[in-house]
Design brief:
The radius of gyration is 19 Å and the shape is globular. The protein is an alpha/beta fold. The strands form three sheets. It has a five-stranded mixed β-sheet, with helices on both faces. It has a four-stranded antiparallel β-sheet with strand order 3-10-4-11, with helices on both faces. Helix content is about 40%, strand content about 15%. The protein folds into two domains: about 180 residues, 3-Layer(aba) Sandwich (D-Maltodextrin-Binding Protein, domain 2); about 100 residues, Periplasmic binding protein-like II (D-Maltodextrin-Binding Protein, domain 2, 3-Layer(aba) Sandwich).
Length: about 325
C-alpha cells in the first residue's frame, strides 16, 4: 500500500451483521436458457441500482448474447439476508461490495471475485442540520447506517484516518437494514446524518433541499492514497465457478456490456430498466450522469484491476476491517 496511515489505534468492526428478517421474494425476472443445463442463480437488492443492472441485462437480452444461462433472479429487501443467503450457498452470483465478499471468503466461504462495477464515489454521508458540515461534527450525534455492509466499514476507516473519529465509539449509530431507510431517517428528522449510497443520495437531494453531502468515500480515499477505491463487484460461489469456468468468464462479459450500455445511453437504459428500482427516472439519470453513481468495469483477469482491489484490501486490513489483505485465491483470474 502506498503512503503511510496515520491511525492511532486499531479499529475493530464486525465483518458482517447477523441475518435479520427473512427475505421477501416478491417477484422475479425471467431469463432462462433451456437446454444448457442448470442456469446460474443470482439476486438483486431493492430498492437500488442493482435492480437497474438486473433489468437492463434482461431487457437487452445480454445473457443470451453472451451465451449464458441465467435463472430468474431473486429479489431481496434486507441487506443482511442478501449476503447471508449468498454465504449459505442459496444462489451462485452476487452483486455486492467486494469487501463483504472478501470478509466471507476469509471466514471460509468459497467465493471468487469476477469483476468490479462501481467505485466508492457513490458512498455519501448526508445531513440537513446547518451545524453539521463535516464528519468531525458527528461526535455525540446520531448517524443512520446499515452496519452489515462494506459501506459502513469503509467509511469507518476513512473517517477514523481523516478526523480521528471512531464511529463505533463516538457516534450513536441508528441501525437500519436498507440503505434507503438511512436517508429516510434523516429527511424525517430522526437522525442527524445518514450514510447511504446512490441512487438513494440523488433521491434524497431531490426530495429535501435542506440536505447536503458532508462526506464522500471516493474523495476521501483519493485524498489519502491517490487511488480509486473499487466498491460494488460481482462475486460467485467457487463451487459454481469450478464447475462452469467458461460460463463464469462469460458472466463478466455480460456485466461489461451492461455497464457500457448504462453509461453510453443513460436515458435509454433508464427507460429500458428503470422501472421497479424504487426511483424516478430523473433521479436515476441524475445519479449516473452526475457521476455520483460511477460505473467503472474492472475484470479480475486484469492484473492492474486486481492490484487496485489488493491495495484497497491492504487499507482495510490495516484498520482491522479485514483479517488480512486479499490474495490471488480471491480472484477469478482466467
Amino acid at each position: 500500500m502506498s503512503g503511510p496511515f496515520t491511525r492511532r489505534r486499531a479499529l475493530t468492526v464486525a465483518a458482517s451483521g447477523a441475518a435479520l428478517a427473512a427475505t421477501g421474494h416478491r417477484r422475479t425476472l425471467a431469463q432462462d436458457r433451456p437446454g444448457q443445463g442448470s442456469p446460474a442463480t443470482w439476486a438483486y437488492l431493492t430498492p437500488g441500482f442493482t435492480v437497474l443492472v438486473a433489468q437492463y441485462i434482461v431487457g437487452k437480452a445480454l445473457a443470451q448474447k453472451h451465451d449464458v444461462a441465467l435463472a430468474k433472479p431473486t429479489e431481496y429487501a434486507a441487506v443482511s439476508a442478501y449476503y447471508e443467503d449468498f454465504a449459505a450457498g442459496k444462489y451462485d452470483i452476487c452483486v455486492g461490495s467486494w469487501d463483504v465478499l472478501a470478509a466471507r471468503q476469509q471466514a471460509g466461504v468459497p467465493i471468487k471475485l469476477l469483476c468490479t462495477i462501481t467505485t466508492a464515489d457513490m458512498i455519501f454521508i448526508l445531513s440537513g442540520r446547518p451545524d453539521i458540515s463535516e464528519p468531525a461534527q458527528l461526535r455525540g450525534r446520531t448517524l443512520a447506517a446499515v452496519q452489515s455492509t462494506g459501506t459502513f466499514r469503509i467509511v469507518s476507516a476513512l473517517i477514523e484516518d481523516a478526523y480521528g473519529l471512531d464511529l463505533a465509539r463516538d457516534v450513536l449509530i441508528k441501525g437500519v437494514d436498507n440503505p434507503a431507510a438511512a436517508v429516510t431517517l434523516v429527511t424525517d428528522n430522526l437522525a442527524d446524518a445518514g450514510l447511504s449510497w446512490e441512487p438513494n443520495i440523488s433521491a434524497a437531494l431531490a426530495r429535501d433541499r435542506r440536505l447536503r453531502p458532508i462526506f464522500n468515500a471516493g474523495d476521501a480515499y483519493r485524498n489519502l492514497t491517490n487511488l480509486i477505491f473499487p466498491f460494488f463487484a460481482v462475486g460467485a460461489r467457487q463451487e459454481w465457478t469450478d464447475r462452469n469456468p467458461d460460463t463464469a468468464r462469460k458472466v463478466r462479459q455480460v456485466f461489461a456490456s451492461c455497464l457500457a450500455g448504462l453509461i453510453g445511453d443513460t436515458e435509454d437504459a433508464v427507460r429500458t430498466a428503470g422501472q421497479d428500482t424504487g426511483f424516478a427516472p430523473e433521479v436515476l439519470t441524475d445519479a449516473i450522469t452526475s457521476r455520483r453513481l460511477r460505473f467503472v468495469y474492472g475484470s479480475m483477469a486484469d492484473e492492474a484491476e486486481r492490484r487496485g482491489v489488493v491495495r484497497a484490501s491492504e487499507f482495510l486490513a490495516h484498520y482491522g476491517l479485514l483479517q488480512r489483505p486479499v490474495g490471488e485465491d480471491f480472484f477469478l483470474t482466467a
